Amino acid sequence: MTINEIINYLNEMPSSGFAVHCYDENDDFSDDDDWVDTASPYTRNDGGRAASGRKGSAGDCGVRAMAIALGLDYDACYKELAQANKDAGRAKSMRRGIMKSDFDKVLARYGWVWHSAPKFDGRKARCSDMPAGNVIARQSRHFVAVIDGQPHDTFDSSGKMVYGYWRLP
């Protein structure tokens, strides 16, 4: 079936009184300005989790974010953050995440500083609003590495509100 046959079929289907024209049949698609930018809003990156031999998923977003943004080994980040959890009186594990205050202490050892998210009239800050370079953004129940405004994670969190971020001064 050709594209024109599909469009004709769709336009003949019952609707609420008007035809749906989803395609300009006179467009030859030769002009790049006609294309909508469909680039992915995020880069899929597990921070080295799979390469470390781990399987499945876990609440290890802090580990992934730290490994990606700081360019460190996943296992080293896991061990350091798990120890921070233990030092705070919680289980020595990263499968259930880490508190912001404990994550902040670890990142401070590397010289990373907390900043509040930028303020906008009528909308919340998103990953695309983060400053250039590597940052770690804090979202609702999530940490994500953001590189030049694009989240690097195992799922697309680009639409989530950002409360603040860490970066090198």
Question: Can you describe what's shown?
Answer:
With 169 residues, the chain is of the alpha+beta class. The chain is built from four helices and six strands; from the N terminus they run H-E-H-H-H-E-E-E-E-E. Strands 1-5-4-3-6-2 form a six-stranded mixed sheet, with helices on one face. Strand 3 (134-139) and strand 4 form a beta hairpin.
Keywords for this entry:
169 residues; alpha+beta; 2 domains; 6-stranded mixed beta sheet; 4 helices; 6 strands
- The neighbouring-strand order within the major sheet is 1-5-4-3-6-2
Radius of gyration: 22 Å
The amount of beta strand, in percent, is: 15-25%
Q: Which bin fits the share of residues in helices?
A: 25-40%
Structural class: alpha+beta
Distance between the termini: 57 Å
Rough outline: globular
Task: List unreliable stretches of 5+ residues.
Answer: 15-38
Domain count: the total is: 2
Number of discrete helical segments:
4
Largest sheet: 6 strands, mixed
Q: What would you say about this model in short?
A:
With 169 residues, this protein is of the alpha+beta class.
List the topology elements:
Layout: H1 3-12, E1 43-44, H2 61-70, H3 74-87, H4 100-109, E2 113-116, E3 134-139, E4 142-147, E5 150-153, E6 162-167
Parallel strand pairs: 1-5
Antiparallel strand pairs: 2-6, 3-4, 3-6, 4-5
